[in-house]
Amino acid sequence: MMDLKMHNRPIKVVIADDNKNVLESVQMVLKDYPAINLIATFNSGMECVYTIELLKPDVVLMDIDMPDMSGIEVVKLIRKQFPGLPVLMLTGFEDDDKVFNSICAGANGYILKTTTMESLIHQIQEVYEGGAPMTPVIARKVLNAFANLQRPQSLREDYNLSNREKEVLELLVKGKSYKMISSQLNISYETVHTHIRRIYKKLHVNSVSEAVSKTIIQKILGQL
User: Which of 79, 117, 92 is nearest to 209 (CA)?
Assistant: First the structure.
């Protein structure tokens, strides 16, 4: 069993997928990891949305292809009602327009259904800690889309980012993970996490994708 970083309490997770086998396999695996608590499973995206306020999960796993409403539409509802709640999309295809559209709709990242359970657990923890699990292919596609959006120079705001926060933000924009930022800037993982929390607060965002898109659209770091 992999060694998970323990938080003050287990990470509460809910999963929505209309595939019974997926739900059962995830449920079976996660029960062996005390750092993660699978508190509910759903075969309907809307049912999941309706119970979020009651269950108060830390992370939502959402199948892209749901029968009642697409996972992308469900993400839009979640982002509108619960802006800070991390959502990871479950998909069978990596380089897919649905993955790209789900990220643009507000998903924090995605997980391939063919991934190992250890990778699934790692990515749940990563998104809970503020990361954005996605491959460079999708990350670059998202960045290119946002880069095509223009904002007048006169509307650029000063968010009072420190020099170190700007360094961290620039690496986030380039698609670097928390661990890669830690190594490149020669600072601890916890310090990276602290800087990113402060960046979120100053930019008034709740996720890496929001921070990156706002940075590019408003040219907060100038022309990258």
Answer: 79
**45 close to 107: Cβ distance less than 8 angstroms:** no
Topology (CATH level 3) of domain 149-217: Arc Repressor Mutant, subunit A (1.10.10)
Phi first, then psi: what are they for 89, rounded to 5°?
A: -85, 140
Strands 11-16 and 109-112: unpaired
Per-residue pLDDT tens digits for 68-106:
788 888 988 888 888 788 898 888 776 567 777 887 788
Domain boundaries, given as residue ranges, for the chain: 11-133, 149-217
CA pair distance 90, 113, nearest whole angstrom:
6
Which residue type does 94 have? E
Chunked into runs of 10 residues, the chain (224 residues) has average pLDDT values of 59 90 82 86 88 92 84 87 86 73 80 79 82 62 58 59 90 79 88 86 78 74 60
The listed CATH number (3.40.50.300, 3.40.50.2300, 1.10.3720.10, 3.30.1360.120) that belongs to domain 11-133 = 3.40.50.2300
